[in-house]
Each structure stands twice: as structure tokens, then as C-alpha cells.
DNA sequence: GCGACAG
DNA sequence: ATCTTGTCGC
């Protein structure tokens, strides 16, 4: 891998970090490649939104990933793909991408189409170093990505209103001790705990939240993530069996 | 040093 | 993430 403007997914995967120091260095090197200026696809667009998720069996050193493509308008499942591999990195808060991305990329490659948007189970900019799983995946693949997490991690927030669609800013400390907005706590269902949305790559926060709402017509968690979660668990148990 | 800490 | 039964409620 090099430091010039080009980025080779192959090289990044071939030189995947194996320790924390190398992983931190990789985040520092790739962080500047995140693109926030683009507004990204509108919710309800004529295309596919792909949800990705991963399930683990650390005992057997197995990881299963799923990529599920949904119709951007109807949310109907149009295609599914899975991949199984070896655990590439231990779980370290803040370094989740190094554990999940290699197998997720495999699953995405087995998809017979290019996603118009990828929805990740985790963070984009709402990360201690502003480079969570969604941002990392976006930079490596060049695809628009967003992160929708179930917990705020290191960020703080005020509870948004009870209504579906209500939101409040997600705040996280910056290097010089100040607070900055890194995402949004978004209520996807009335009276239900909010989800934590942040920009991954090539999309803005307003659209990231609009997509999240559109993808969550009935449950707290987006249909993309629900579908990918169910599929990767299925893939993991099949890998265990045979 | 201690606690907190996406999945 | 994962270990795990029943149970309350729409």
C-alpha cells in the first residue's frame, strides 16, 4: 500500500493489521479519505440498500458475514450473499472494523450488484478517532455508507422526543477537549430507545437519518440490519454443522 | 490508576 | 458478540 491518492482494496486486505498499534496507524492513515461533502442517495431512491452484519464463534475461530440487498423503495429483499472466514482481529472497542471488514468485503463481493448505499451495524464518524466501521468500509470500497448502532459508545446525548423521527445530537470530545456533533440519536419508533446514526462515507447526516427512518418502518432496528443479522447467524450455524 | 467501552 | 426460558403484550 502507498500514501498517494490511489487506494487498493487488495493491498489493504493483504496487509491487514494484526496488532493494535498497526490498526491505530491504519486508522490515522485512512481517516483523511472519508468524504462528507457529498449528500448521497435520497431515501426511497430507485436502487438497492445493502445491510451487512457479522456473527462469531471465537471457540472455533469462525466468523460469518452477510450482505442483504433491499429494494430502496419497497424494502423487499432482492439478493443475499454470505461469506465465512477466520477471525482476523480480537474485539477491541474502537477497532471493531479490523475484526469485521475482511469477511464483510467477501460477502459484498459475492453480491451480484453494486450497492447504492451500505448500512453498517456500528459507527461511522461517531467514533473516538472519527473512523468507525462504516467509515472504514466506505473508504475501502468507495461506496456510500452509514452506521446505525444500538449504543452510544463514547458519545453523549440528550434523550430525543418520544415521537418517531425525533432526534438529538450525538456529542463526542475532540482532541482539544471540546465537544463536537458526530451523529444523531434517532427515535425510529415512538417511545422506544433511539438508535445512534452517524455518517460513514459519501453521505451527509440528514440523509443518513432519513434512510434510517425509511428503513425502520416497524422496528427499532433498520430492516437491512435485521435481515443481515438473521442471515449471518444462519450462515454461522451452517458453517458449524458442515 | 479506575471505569467505560460499537460488535 | 455470546451464554439462554419463559413471559408479558399487541
Automatic annotation (TrEMBL):
Gene3D superfamilies: archaeoglobus fulgidus dsm 4304 superfamily
Protein name according to UniProt: Endonuclease V
Chief site of localization: cytoplasm
GO terms for MF: deoxyribonuclease V activity; magnesium ion binding; RNA endonuclease activity producing 5'-phosphomonoesters, hydrolytic mechanism; single-stranded RNA binding
Residues bound to Mg(2+): 53, 121
Record family assignment: Belongs to the endonuclease V family.
Gene Ontology biological process terms from the UniProt entry: DNA repair
Catalyzed reaction equations: Endonucleolytic cleavage at apurinic or apyrimidinic sites to products with a 5'-phosphate
UniProt organism field: Streptomyces paromomycinus
InterPro entries: Endonuclease-V
Cofactor(s) demanded: Mg(2+)
Keyword line: Cytoplasm, DNA damage, DNA repair, Endonuclease, Hydrolase, Magnesium, Metal-binding, Nuclease
Entry function: DNA repair enzyme involved in the repair of deaminated bases. Selectively cleaves double-stranded DNA at the second phosphodiester bond 3' to a deoxyinosine leaving behind the intact lesion on the nicked DNA.
Amino acid at each position: 500500500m502507498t500514501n498517494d491518492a490511489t487506494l487498493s482494496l487488495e493491498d489493504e486486505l493483504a496487509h491487514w493489521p494484526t496488532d493494535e498499534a498497526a490498526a491505530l496507524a491504519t486508522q490515522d492513515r485512512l481517516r483523511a479519505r472519508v468524504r462528507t461533502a457529498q449528500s448521497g442517495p435520497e431515501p426511497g431512491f430507485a436502487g438497492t440498500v445493502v445491510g451487512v452484519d457479522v456473527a462469531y464463534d471465537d471457540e472455533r475461530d469462525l466468523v460469518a458475514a452477510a450482505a442483504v440487498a433491499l429494494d430502496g423503495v419497497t424494502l423487499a429483499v432482492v439478493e443475499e450473499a454470505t461469506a465465512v472466514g477466520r477471525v482476523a482481529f480480537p474485539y477491541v472497542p474502537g477497532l471493531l472494523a479490523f475484526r469485521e471488514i475482511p469477511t464483510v468485503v467477501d460477502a459484498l463481493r459475492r453480491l451480484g450488484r453494486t450497492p447504492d448505499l451500505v448500512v453498517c451495524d456500528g459507527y461511522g464518524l461517531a467514533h473516538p478517532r472519527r473512523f468507525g466501521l462504516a467509515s472504514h468500509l466506505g473508504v475501502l470500497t468507495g461506496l456510500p455508507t452509514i452506521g446505525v448502532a444500538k449504543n452510544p459508545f463514547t458519545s453523549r446525548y440528550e434523550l430525543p422526543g418520544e415521537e418517531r423521527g425525533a432526534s438529538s445530537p450525538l456529542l463526542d470530545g475532540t482532541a482539544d477537549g471540546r465537544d463536537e456533533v458526530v451523529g444523531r440519536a434517532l427515535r425510529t419508533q415512538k417511545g422506544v430507545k433511539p438508535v445512534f446514526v452517524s455518517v460513514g462515507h459519501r453521505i451527509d447526516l440528514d440523509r443518513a437519518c432519513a434512510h434510517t427512518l425509511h428503513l425502520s418502518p416497524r422496528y427499532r432496528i433498520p430492516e437491512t440490519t435485521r435481515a443481515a443479522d438473521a442471515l449471518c447467524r444462519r450462515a454461522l450455524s451452517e458453517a458449524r454443522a458442515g
